[in-house]
Amino acid sequence: MLAIYKKELRSYFHSMIGYVFIAFFLAIVGIYFYAYNMVYGLANFEYVLNTINFLYIILVPILTMKLMAEEKRQKTDQLLFTSPVSIYKIILGKYLAVITLFLVCIMVTCTYPLILSLYGTVSFGTAYASILGFTLMGAAYIAIGLFISILTESQVIAAVVTFLVMLLTYLMTGIASMLPSDKLSCLIMISILAVLFCYIIYLTMRKIKISIGLFVGIEAVLVIVYRIKPELFDNLLVKVLSWFSVMDRYENFSLGIFDMTAIVYYISVAVLFVVLAVLFTKQSLCDKRNIAGLYRTGVMVFVTVTAILINMAFSVLDLTFDLSKNGLYSISDATIDLVKGLEDDITIYYVVQDGSEDSLIEKIVSKYEKTGEKINVVKKDPVLYPAFCAQYTSEDVSNNSLIVVNNTTGVSRYLPSEELYITDIDYSSYQSYHSGIDVEGQLTSAISYVTSNELPKIYTVTGHGETALNEMVIKSIEKQNVTTEELSTLTAESIPDDCSLLLINGPVYDFQESEISIIKDYMENGGKAIIFTSYTTEKMDVFYEFLGNYGVETVEGIVVEGAGYYMNNMPTYLVPDYVSHEVTATAEAEGKYAVIPYAQGLTIQSELRDTLSVVSFLDTSPDSFSKVDVNSNTIEMEDGDIKGPFSLGVAVTETLDAEEGEEAKEAKLIIMSTPYVIDSNIVATNQFGNLNILNDSISWMTEVKAGISIPSKSFDENYITIAGNMANLWGAVLVFIIPGAILIVGVVVWVKRRKC
């Protein structure tokens, strides 16, 4: 085999074919690399490979057309197959020679992410997973091209047929979506595929009776199944064709998923077509080698069935590893714990027309079913079941929406597809686009909702210039299945009985005594509250007296940090130290720091009543100070400024006396020193821990399961920073100089051999 391998590999480099292939491949990759990565500044090399899949349609026919067709045309195949080398070694040697040539291109391509890393942050896991998938897909396509080359003596016919097969697999998904999906049409089309299969059997055995008998048997089974369980044929053809789409399997790699199922699929395709190439080669020599057609057919069926069974086994195992940025295709530990702890049976209905599936939504939803025994995912085609969704919602249900149903209690929640993505607007073009995905956040929240007995309610106090909650904060609260409602304490006689949590967000005008009175009554009855203070020039005596009653006092001015405990050269954008507490647990676990802009300092009174516990969970550094004159021209500490450190967030717990026959109650209070903790600009990114602190504060006080509010995941791209002249230099090197040099070497070698 080694001799065949060396001979075949030398043939590529003794002619122009190998040099042209390498040069053309690298030039195309270089063009897209220059456009995507150098010009647009994207740090995602996988975009390049995802775009140049069409190269296989052009290059595989060129590479494989001469493998066996040329041997047959020149009649050297007879000499080759009568040599002491077995047929499978001959075929395998030729295949490995082409793979080696292909790997030369891949090895050069592997340096491209390293080039990008010189100018920015690159996700190497995603980039090299994409290269791996691209390589395996090429290996599978080359095996298909090798097999086709076995079937003809003409290189032209081999190239054309290979091109058509490559094109068909490239367009397979689109073609499948246009085919009829009704049961009868699928039965007819599957029967046509059965005819093609039996014809292949005839080519290997040359026994027409066996082939016809096999077709009759297959058709009888199809008809019986159709009569007994016709729903199995709903869109069956699309599913079958999608399974044969070599191109679709690459999608996971391009998205940053290391997919063992796809790896096994590509290896299976390569092995299957190499084996078929060997069998069909033996068929052409059957008169001389006296090889039984039945044996060849048995081997072919065995290899095919084995490949299918292996792929089915790996599909069940779901051996995938998410290497993408932000873990887009994974579910968090909090979701896993929730799903594994379910007691009720939950069905997630994925409402989508066959062929219109959103791959990202589908991948994430499937994780739930594979994680918990109580979760069942059912796909419902609204075309086939038009009245189904009306049971759960009166809204018009769009493709890729979800309906979560608790089968035990009957409680359900509808998740429209537009809520599963985060949508922003590009103000340069005023076009909307998806900037992130929130499938896990919404779906986990829905599961928690349908399995919860009681849902907490937050009342937000108004009437004192409080900062309104922004949309992202409201959505985050709602994910915990906590509802919100405004409350004017000025007109209310008391805090409503259904109030689980009172929220006061940065008042800038003082409260009246009557308002504080009803808030005190609420707290003395075991109430829970979150208070964000705010710097203001107004007198806030009544409000500050209320805070003092719980052992917390505010410091005049705005805190300025020293010693680098601030963000982006802005000493008023504080980055405090965490003091371990339940409300900082998630942020600490995820390694996210909190950013606290324009904060008042908080101090804890030295003497507290016995029933009161006050602890700080956010502290400034000893170099911090409070700038009393906020209009000062200097950020440095001046006379009159107050030396730190300070608290920026405190947790207050008061144990209340229980009346006879009742359990003791606890009042809980979170006080933070600025409403900007949950400002939209801060919580818009998942980079900071502010939203985690808010969610954990709600969890701590309302006893909602911590971590149930899963943040959305951003699609934000990584970018590189590269000067225009340097980008152009790389473009020239990769598109022209390197491919040109390879072609020149090829011409020199070719001319020298012509002279010999």
UniProtKB/TrEMBL annotation:
It is a multi-pass membrane protein. Its main location: membrane. It is found in: Membrane. Residues 325-406 form the DUF7088 domain. Keywords: Membrane, Transmembrane, Transmembrane helix. The chain crosses the membrane at residues 12-35, 47-69, 90-115, 127-149, 156-178, 184-203, 210-228, 263-281, 293-314, 729-751. It holds the Pfam family ABC_transp_aux. One of its GO terms (cellular component) is membrane. Residues 44-216 form the ABC-2 type transporter transmembrane domain. The keyword Transmembrane helix applies. One of its GO terms (molecular function) is ABC-type transporter activity. Residues 456-561 form the ABC-type uncharacterised transport system domain. This is ABC-2 type transport system permease protein. It comes from Anaeromicropila populeti. The lineage of its organism: Bacteria, Bacillati, Bacillota, Clostridia, Lachnospirales.
